[in-house]
Amino acid sequence: MSDGGSSSEQARKIAEGLAYLTGFGNEHSSEAVPGALPHGRNSPQRAPLGLYAEQLSGSAFTEPRTHNRRSWLYRIRPSAAHPPFTRTDNGALRTAPFTETVPDPNRLRWNPLPDPAPDTDFLAGLWTVGGNGDATQRTGMAIHLYAANAPMTDRVFSDSDGELLIVPERGGLLLRTELGLLSARPGEMALIPRGVRFRVELLDEDARGYVCENYGQPFELPNLGPIGANGLAAARDFRAPVAAYEDIERPTEVVNKFCGNLWSATYDHSPLDVVAWHGTHTPYVYDMRRFNVIGSISFDHPDPSIFTVLTSPSDTPGLAGVDFVVFAPRWLVGEDTFRPPYFHRNVMSEYMGLIEGAYDAKAEGFVPGGGSLHNMMSAHGPDRETFDRASAAELKPQKIDDGLAFMFETRWPVTATAQAAGAEHLQRGYDDVWQGLERHFRA
Ligand SMILES: [Fe+2]
C-alpha cells in the first residue's frame, strides 16, 4: 500500500470537521466563498466572482415538481471544457441488461469479496453481483460490492446510468463531490446522484461495502399512510454537503460510466471546482441507526416493507423499482407470534447484506460483507436452527440489538453476473440451511 496510512489519517481529520445541510429533497443552497451564489436569478449575464453557471439536471425539465431534480453549479471552469472521452477498461463492473447467465430460481448466498490487490481504489474495486432492467431505458438496478485499500488520486468518477446508494460495511469513506464533502461510516449510507462527479478517499486502512446502482426514478422517502406524519426515516436526518471546491491546476482523470461502459477523459484541472450551488439534485448521507423502527405491539409482524428507508417508485403505484430496507435494532413483543421473519415466497426479488452482527432469521453463514439473493418466488425464511429456537422461545419482550442488515428489494428478478455465479466465494450448499426442518404434522 502506498500512503494509505497518512492519507486516511488526513481524511479522518477532514471528516470530523464536516458541516452539513439537513433535510431530504430540499432546495438547498451553499457558497464556499461569500458572494459566489447569485441571488434572484440562476444565470446572470456575468456570474459572481468570474464563475461559470451550469445546470445539472437529474430529471427531465418537465417532470412534476415532486420528482423534479436539478442543481445550479457555479464553478471555476465549465464541465464542457474537456477533451474527447475514450473507452477504458470496465474492470469488474457490469450493467443491465444482464445476459451473461440465465436468471436462476435458486437461493444464492456469498461470502465477502476476497481482499483486493494493493493500491485498489473505490472505482477499481467495484464488482458487480447482478441486476435487472436496462440502463439505457432507465429501468432496473444493479447490485455491486466494493473493496478498496487506496484513495482515488487525481481521478473522479461519475455515473450517467444511475444514482449510487453506497452502504459501507467495513471502513469509512470520505466522498469529495462536486457539491461538497460527505463522510459515510459503517451504519451510514451515502447517495451520489446520477451524473455527480466524486472522488472517494478512505477513513481507514481499507474499505468494503455494497452499492445499489438505481437506473430508475431517484430514491425518495416512502409515503407513510396510516402511520401518520412521523416515523421510519425522518427527513431532517438526511444530510447534504456544503459547498467546497478544489482549485487544482493538475491533470485529473474523469471516468464516466455511460450505458454500461467506462469512458475516460483527462481534464487539465480538478472538476470538483464548484464554489457555490443551489438546488435539489444533491448527494446525501443518512445514519441508519436514526431509523424509527415500527412494528407490531399485539401479534404477528408487519411485512418488511415497514422497514423501508427509501423507495424508487415505478409507473405502477406501490410497485417499487427498488426499495432500500434496513433491519435496525428493535424490540419484539408479539404475543403468540413466530417472531423472526416468516417463511415466504415473494414476487419481488430480495438481495440482502449484513453490516454488522447477525440477522435474526439466520443463525449462521450470513456474515458481514456477504450477501444473499432470493429471487422472485423463491421459497425462503428462517433456517432450521432459528425455526426450532423461535418456536420454543419464551415470549417475553426481546431486544434485537446485535445486528444491522439491509435489503435491496426489486420488482424484477435479479440475474447474476458470470463472475458472481461462478465465484469462489459463492456458498455451495446454501440450500442445506433449510434441510432437517422436521415433520411435526399430526392428523
Ligand atoms: Fe424475504
From TrEMBL:
User: Does this entry carry the keyword Oxidoreductase?
Assistant: yes
**What does it catalyze?**
homogentisate + O2 = 4-maleylacetoacetate + H(+)
InterPro entries assigned to the protein according to its UniProt record, in alphabetical order? HgmA_C (IPR046451), HgmA_N (IPR046452), Homogentis_dOase (IPR005708), Homogentis_dOase_bac (IPR022950), RmlC-like_jellyroll (IPR014710), RmlC_Cupin_sf (IPR011051)
Q: In which pathway does it act?
A: Amino-acid degradation; L-phenylalanine degradation; acetoacetate and fumarate from L-phenylalanine: step 4/6
The residues annotated as the active site are H301 (proton acceptor)
Please list the residue ranges annotated as the Homogentisate 1,2-dioxygenase N-terminal domain: 19-288
Q: Which residues participate in homogentisate binding?
A: H380
Broadest EC class? oxidoreductase
Q: What's in the keyword line of the UniProt record? A: Dioxygenase, Iron, Metal-binding, Oxidoreductase, Phenylalanine catabolism, Tyrosine catabolism
EC assignment: 1.13.11.5
The question of whether Oxidoreductase is a record keyword is answered with yes
In residue numbers, the region (Disordered) covers: 83-109
The Homogentisate 1,2-dioxygenase C-terminal domain extends over 289-441
- Domain of life of the organism encoding this protein: Bacteria
Listed cofactors = Fe cation
- HAMAP family documented for this protein: Homogentis_dioxygen (MF_00334)
PANTHER family (alphabetical): HOMOGENTISATE 1,2-DIOXYGENASE
What family does this chain come from, according to its entry?
A: Belongs to the homogentisate dioxygenase family.
Subunit-level organization: Hexamer; dimer of trimers.
What is the protein's given name? Homogentisate 1,2-dioxygenase
Per the UniProt record, the source organism is: Streptomyces cirratus
> Gene of origin?
hmgA
